[in-house]
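thought: fold this chain, then report.
action: predict
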Amino acid sequence: MKRRNLPLLIIIASAILIAINFIFFSDDMGLGFWMRILSSLMIILAMYVTIKGRDNE
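observation:
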């Protein structure tokens, strides 16, 4: 696997995990639930910025 594809794979895995989190744990939408979702979205955003930065080089 190329090292360049790793951030993209992490983004896809994070998106899948967020969807699974909504499906299975939507009954208990407390603060912890939203903090997990927010942290996953921040990881996706960071990987997106990393990919765009590498493409500009």
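thought: worth noting. The mean pLDDT is 77.
final: tokens above.
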